[in-house]
Amino acid sequence: MTGGLVAALGAGVGAWPGTPPPPAVVILDFDPIARIAGFEVRWQILAIAGVVLGTILLAAAFAFVAQRRRDAAVARADRARPETVNEVMRAAFGEATEAGQREAVASPDVAQPEAVAPPAGPPVVPPDDVEGPAGTPEAIDAPPPARAEPFARIEPRLRLDDLLFIVIAGVAGAVVGGRLGYVLLHLDYYRADQAAILDPSQGSLTLAGGLAVGVLTALLVATILGSPARRWLGVAIVPLLLALGLGKLSMVLGGEGQGLPSVGEWATAYLGPGPWGSLAPQLPSEPSQVYEAVTTAGALIVVLLVAVVGPLRRRPVVLFSVGIGLWAIGRFVVAYGWRDPALVGSLNGDQVVTLVIASVCGLALVGSIAAKVRERRRRGGSVEPGPAPSVVAVAADEGPEDEIEIPPPDWPHPVDIPVAPSSAAESAPASASASTEDVSAPSTGRDT
What we know:
Blueprint: H1 2-13, E1 26-28, E2 33-36, E3 39-42, H2 43-79, H3 85-106, H4 137-141, H5 160-185, H6 187-192, H7 207-224, H8 229-250, E4 268-270, H9 288-309, H10 316-334, E5 342-344, E6 347-348, H11 349-382, H12 421-440
Parallel strand pairs: 1-4
Antiparallel strand pairs: 2-3, 5-6
Helix pairs in contact: 2-8, 5-7, 7-11, 8-9, 8-10, 9-10, 10-11
């Protein structure tokens, strides 16, 4: 295939490297091997190692800051709510008791006790009474205390030691998925030579397959560790896009990822002995690796804008779906300029995989938004109108204005328990009539 591309472009470019390249082509002529203390290593490998280390440290810093702000938010919520279940129940039953007192005072069928003359001297006011002495109309008519807020469901912490295991699982899954994807794309070759499947010197890895399997294995390990996988998605999306973009840009240092031949303004050609990572590196071609790095940077900018000013910043799954979905769309478009053969119609194998990734991200985005809408409707239908303050706090990993919403209690509130209205009225006249009969009845001679 490469020979055909060289022959097709030979008339306009000339024989390489005997003739100079076209003036519009970007010429890259350098040694791709770094020699340090007698050791030789490719500049591309050094760049990728630096990118991986930097993005892991960035993810750890994001997780640390997010957890610190989350802890501060929970602390503020704790100061604004009861600390124990006993306080919640005492406040609830106290409200029920006061409601019963108000009903008893307002009911005309209930016999009122005779007034008792106050003792001589100044009235004694309980220290805890604010509105007035206990039993007076001022205390009875006072508004009931606000219903105590129940406890928030706080997710597990973002532990930095969990990050290490998650990264290891993600990298291992990326290697396995990338190799599996490459084998499937070149299945005819590996059918004939199955021993080459496990030979790292034969073939390569696919980025799309590695990303898909790596994310799945990382989420699986996070779930096994009991770590909040949803919050880890919000922490990981920016470092992950940064790693994908810088990783593609580092391919320029090794001459990998060259696209179709071109004599355009941005076409690149590699001179010198190399070794270079593309076939016919001296052939002017579209820098597809640079194009994909640019589209990845665009996806990263969109994620940052959504995380700062967008209405969906409070949903880590939404941020992750938007970022990876945009990355997949950009890769799908750039792949039209690759040298890979078509697999399904006019699409090559990597385009098919990225199309599946973009579709899954779209479904996850729609599902997350629909779940949020259903949750708001459910809460809106169960909350009575009027001021109902809730404890809110900022969660850094989900946006600068995220709320820790206090869920409804798991037990019925005593005020909401229905009570038969006739029970109190029937018991009160019965007791009153009984007392009257005892007073008016003639003596039976058994009085002591």
